[in-house]
Amino acid sequence: MPATNPLLIHVGRGEIFIDVPLPQAGVPVRLNVDGTPFPGGRYVGSTLDAASFIYRPTTFDIKTQQATGNVGYVTIEEDLRLEFTIGELSYENIRDTTLSRLDQGSGISFGGVIFPITKAVLLVAPRRAGGFQQAMIYQAIFSEERTFQFSRTGHLALKVVARALALTFRTEGDQLGHYFPNVQPQ
Fold it and tell me: Residues 15-46: pLDDT tens digits?
């Protein structure tokens, strides 16, 4: 049995950045030594709970009369999302991660905005073995409900769901986002 390498078992937080410039196909976002993207992006904060990068393809089974099994598949839909919880509830973080809102300068209001704002979203997580993991959605809308809970015995945290919109001008297979498990800073 092969030996387990504990340094490759990921334990730790993720850091969220938005408005990061998009990389070329097949290339991760360049990172500085501290894991921040180069040439930039706006830091949203550390994730509080587990962050999930979820890819859900929907396929159509191709069948023939001559075989009892499927003879092929075609992808008919793809859903890529990044779900995370932020605790740093600055005005800018709430404004920039809320769908269909109106910026009021020091707060936001809701209702009547039909075309949501889109942003690139990058998650960077340090690896214990050195370097970083990187998950990115190239063009995201911040969908799903928004719940602001106020409690004496807890903290107000905001669950965020970033869903990918396809950038059809990019290469096939690289239109929603990417995941790189081992990115070394430059």
Answer: 999 999 999 999 999 999 999 999 999 999 99
The whole-angstrom separation of Cα 111 and Cα 128 is: 44
Which amino acid would we find at residue 37?
Answer: P
Using DSSP's 3-state secondary structure scheme, residue 82 falls into strand
Q: What are the extents of the domains in the chain?
A: 15-44+51-60+73-183
Whether pTM > 0.85 for this model: the answer is: yes
HSE-CB of 172 using CA atoms within 13 angstroms? 1
Is residue 176 within 8 Å of 138, Cβ to Cβ?
yes
ω into residue 37 within 30 of 0, thus cis? Answer: no
Residue 138: DSSP 8-state: E
* Single-letter amino acid, residue 120: A
